[in-house]
Amino acid sequence: MRIGILALQGAFTEHKIMLEGLGAECFEIRQLKDLYSGPVNGLVFPGGESTVMDKLLRESGLFSPLRGMLEKGIPVLATCAGLILLAEKKEDGTPPCFGTLPVTIRRNAYGRQLGSFQETAPFEGIGDFPMTFIRAPLIVSAAGQVKVLAVTRRYEMTQGISQEFPAAVLWQNQLAMSFHPELSGDPSVHAYFLNMVQNAASLSEGRPA
Ligand code: GLN
């Protein structure tokens, strides 16, 4: 399995370390030619600053080919700012980046007053997982077909809103979360993603996973 990690900015090295620890081959995507350096079985969009990434994606010419790959269903793991890149809608009304994931997000919702925090909660298919939030986007709503794999009650505790919100979602081959699984020391989410990549590769080769 060969995974391309968007490395324009942000926390990409930690994903590489996690995935390589699980036996995957990784390469960094910084410029257009990186996309054509060999087969690409999956993508990772890391945390960082989504507005900067959006700008660099367009300036580097990476935006269109990556959107094409997403539209064709390449498996992607998107964390924090990466989730913002995929989201179909942003509550502040600014235009989406790729807009391939039918969720609405609120940027920086787990805001400055919190800095970062960790909350352990069940993640479907994994079990309890330590979720690290860093100035993270809130998934305000998700379309009916989007599968919610983990929720957080943390927003309720800090904002007085009595509601659980999705913290990790899956739609088609897009696995996205508000938190940073690469900083948890627990490789389960990355293993879950590699399993998706394996299944997608087996399907496209016409044999069972
Ligand atoms: N606040 C960042 C943004 O809006 C996301 C934070 C993160 O990725 N840790 O892009």
CA(first)-CA(last) distance = 13 Å
Ligand roster:
glutamine
CATH class: Alpha Beta
The number of distinct helices, counting runs of at least 4 residues, comes to: 6
Q: Average pLDDT value?
A: 92
- Shape call: globular
What would you report as the Rg, rounded to the nearest angstrom? 16 Å
Largest sheet report: 7 strands, mixed
Strand order of the largest sheet: 2-1-3-4-12-11-10
Beta content comes to 25-35%
Strands, count: 12
Per the CATH scheme, the topology name is Rossmann fold
CATH architecture descriptor: 3-Layer(aba) Sandwich
Helix content class = 25-40%
Q: Helices and strands, in N-to-C order?
A: EHEEHHEHEEEEEEHEEH
Structural class estimated from helices and strands:
alpha/beta
Binding site for L-glutamine: 48-50, 107, 134-135
Catalytic activity: L-glutamine + H2O = L-glutamate + NH4(+); aldehydo-D-ribose 5-phosphate + D-glyceraldehyde 3-phosphate + L-glutamine = pyridoxal 5'-phosphate + L-glutamate + phosphate + 3 H2O + H(+)
Subunit structure: In the presence of PdxS, forms a dodecamer of heterodimers. Only shows activity in the heterodimer.
Protein name: Pyridoxal 5'-phosphate synthase subunit PdxT
